[in-house]
């Protein structure tokens, strides 16, 4: 067997130019596949993280009718009991109670529909890190009079900047129309430009006084210390508070759940397509090798080499050729991913800013799951074996007497 291994390895270098071209093609294919998969994985993971951290949190609690009618009069009952339990639950990393009101934001030049969120600045900062997304001006200051945070997209649309006055119009708890003047304290920017354009943040007590009740809580957003415990946590609290609607991030945003699952699926799809393309080139290379060596193979079988050994020899040649290219492709692929994993790839100068329209950041940090290092070699070996079968069968079907007379 050792002799067969040595012969097979030497055979692939009998035509070094052709073998080298094939190895480079395999390397380039796998490198490209790994880069494409890592970018897709990084993009999906970033969208998941920003979506959960900045928009939905791990769970949200509402009054059931609030979800159906989007009316601020449907507040969370038993709030004191619930918040005390959240404060004492070791699994809860942070939570934030919010007042949610649909309304209009008006400036001197434009009016735009927005969701007005009344928050506690400190609790919101711990839950969604809103304070870290301020790009101009300052975070909400409880000592200021009617401060408001607006998103960058909304600020550009309404030509508003820190210090500008805006008017928020909405319905109070009695259904009467209310208007209030607010001063822009700061401008925030997240990875989702649509979120930035449709949400404004004010102090909970400020919006409460215009609604007719200071302590109005329509939504409680919760972040857990362990994301894997989200489902169990939701079931536990749903049994304790059946009168409330408790939804996980995947229920709040099925699109986000789809993105979360898409990363590994995308990797497999990209890789399989590339390996299928490489398989045809590899099969063509091995067929050419067999055809060029018809007389040699006939002589080997004439002097006693069994067809089984000929079959194994062709299989080994294909495997060596594939694994050599695959090893180079994996090494260069993982090296490239490692290089950009921390610094990222900035697509802002090539139209990457449009990614924010879909909730993605323009700087992509490629990622590869550790399991890919195991899955990839297995797929490569399967590809090598499957593409070697036809050339190997072609070789063992040769008739030694006729093959040795080939020129």
TrEMBL record:
Pfam families: FtsX (PF02687), MacB_PCD (PF12704). It is found in: Cell membrane. One of its GO terms (cellular component) is plasma membrane protein complex. Residues 268-400 form the ABC3 transporter permease C-terminal domain. The keyword Isomerase does not apply. InterPro entries: ABC3_permease_C, Lipoprotein-release_system, MacB_PCD. This is ABC-type lipoprotein release transport system permease subunit.
